[in-house]
Amino acid sequence: MTDFFTGIDKLEYNPDSTSLAFRHYNPEEMLLGKRMEDHLRFAVAYWHSFAWPGGDPFGGATFERPWFGETMELARLKADVAFEMFDILGAPYFCWHDADIRPEGDSFKESRRNFEDIIDYLAEKMEHSQTRLLWGTANMFSHRRFMSGAATNPDPEIFAWSAATVKLCMDATQKLGGENYVLWGGREGYETLLNTDLKRERAQAGRFLQMVVDYKHKIGFKGAILVEPKPQEPSKHQYDFDVATVYGFLKEFGLESEVQMNIEQGHAILAGHSFEHELALAASLGILGSIDMNRNDYQSGWDTDQFPNNVPEVALAYYEVLRAGGFKTGGTNFDAKLRRQSLDPLDLIAGHAGAMDVCARGLKAAVAMLEDGTLENKRNERYAGWDSEYGKSLLQSDLASIADDVESSGIDPQPRSGQQEVLENLVNRFV
Ligand code: XUL
Ligand code: CO
After folding, report:
1. Distance between CA 120 and CA 51 in Å, rounded?
2. Are 338 and 347 in contact (CB under 8 A)?
3. What is the full per-residue pLDDT of the chain (431 aa) written as tens digits?
4. From 72's CA, which of 130, 258, 311, 374 has a CA 20 to 30 Å away?
5. Pocket probe mutation, ligand 1, options 264, 293, 297, 305, max atoms within 8 Å of Cβ
6. What distance in angstroms lies between residue 91's CA and the mean position of ligand 1's atoms?
7. 3-class SS at 309?
8. Ranges in the chain annotated CATH 3.20.20.150
9. Residue numbers annotated as active site
10. What is the pLDDT of residues 77-114, one digit of tens each?
11. Does the N-terminal peptide bond of residue 345 adopt cis geometry, omega within 30 degrees of 0?
């Protein structure tokens, strides 16, 4: 045991509690025939909670964690504290980048050794923990070698380094029983077209993703390969802008049945979408895999990665997840960090506990809306014409025949209310 969380006990479900406890997240509660924990599948993100030092563009580190530093001993201390936090929260999953968990070495080989040793250490810790790996990923955006991209880099040696890095991270994910492997294209984009061959860079990224999929099959990894869209930051123009853009990319490289999406709330907002739009679109394309749950500031226009705190928004997100049949290999990863003034160990626990409660409330509201059925019925009624013989036959017809029919049948279509306010009032009954 470390002394980092001294004085903080394992959180319990207690709806009447006025102190630190879950007032809504009850893992055992049954909803739609499934335990709440199995619906939500919460994961803690190693990078924000244990690796981020609290800097912003105007100031450096504000957190002074006892495990900060690039040694193996400190990496193991970090893992000890991480698993203590997973226990306090009862977190079913966690997620990592290679760079979050191991110190960088002086060569690829040394970094690999460090990484593999830490993976062994995590495997030991997982033997005595309820917490499993939701996904692993590679950090190919922080180190200066990646400043012009990873797979899309103008330098083929960086492509090679990146391929070797992803292979290593996929091996480790499989070793730890990870349920997904994520690729977020950190610096896969560009700052200025003046120095960028956009066609070549996208082709490199497509080939890279094909190699990832081939390797998944080669090693028999059973999890899902997920791409995480984001429109800007760090690059001004990111190739993985949003769900629609990534789907076009997957089609272009023949990967649409191999790769799914990890959709993040804040990234959806940055792309000018709502979270539920991105989820509904991915679901309709059959590529909704997992979610990075957080909250983006609506004023700053930047990726603020706050803990979710808006039940009505979260409810609409889980409504789309449930309509799509719920998570399979995916889950709810808190890609969320403390504000840089939140220095205390208690803040880390409170941030996650509150977020888990907000998600539980959102999920319960979404389940209630589905069980009530009015929202779905109203949507179905709106499109009922398309289920009629007339509606179905139209889609089998052609422009000229339809034109003839419009005149001979003398149809006289009348506008009908979209009832947005009625529907918003309906949703407000549940949230
Ligand atoms: C960055 C982001 C990443 C990915 C994993 O905005 O969301 O942390 O989730 O690389
Ligand atoms: Co993310």
Report:
1. 19
2. yes
3. 999 999 999 999 999 999 999 999 999 999 999 999 999 999 999 999 999 999 999 999 999 999 999 999 999 999 999 999 999 999 999 999 999 999 999 999 999 999 999 999 999 999 999 999 999 999 999 999 999 999 999 999 999 999 999 999 999 999 999 999 999 999 999 999 999 999 999 999 999 999 999 999 999 999 999 999 999 999 999 999 999 999 999 999 999 999 999 999 999 999 999 999 999 999 999 999 999 999 999 888 889 999 999 999 999 999 999 999 999 999 999 999 999 999 999 999 999 999 999 999 999 999 999 999 999 999 999 999 999 999 999 999 999 999 999 999 999 999 999 999 999 999 999 99
4. 130
5. 264
6. 19
7. coil
8. 30-372
9. 97, 100
10. 999 999 999 999 999 999 999 999 999 999 999 999 99
11. no
List, for residues 358-377, the tens digit of each pLDDT value: 999 999 999 999 999 999 99
- Closest ligand (CA of 97): 1
Ion ligand 2 nearby residues (CB, 5 A): 264, 292, 335
Ligand 1 atom nearest 141 alpha carbon: 10
In the block, which residue shows the tokens 């790996």?
133
Which residue type is seen at 385? G
In three-state secondary structure terms, 30 is: strand
Atom 10 of ligand 1: nearest residue by CA position: 184
On whether the CB atoms of residues 187 and 193 are closer than 8 A, the answer is: no
* Both tokens assigned to 359: 């998600």
Q: How many CB atoms lie within 10 A of CB 176?
A: 18
CA dist 309 and 358 (Å) reads 6
Please determine, looking at this structure, whether the domain spanning 30-372 carries the CATH number 3.20.20.150: yes
Residues in a beta bridge with 291 = 263, 332
Residue 409: closest CA among 390, 389, 423, 426: 390
Tell me which residue has its CA closest to atom 5 in ligand 1. Answer: 184
* Beta bridge partner(s), residue 332: 42, 291
DSSP string computed for 201-227: HHHHHHHHHHHHHHHHHHHT--SEEEE
Q: How far apart are CA 104 and CA 115, in angstroms?
A: 9
Residues across the chain: 431
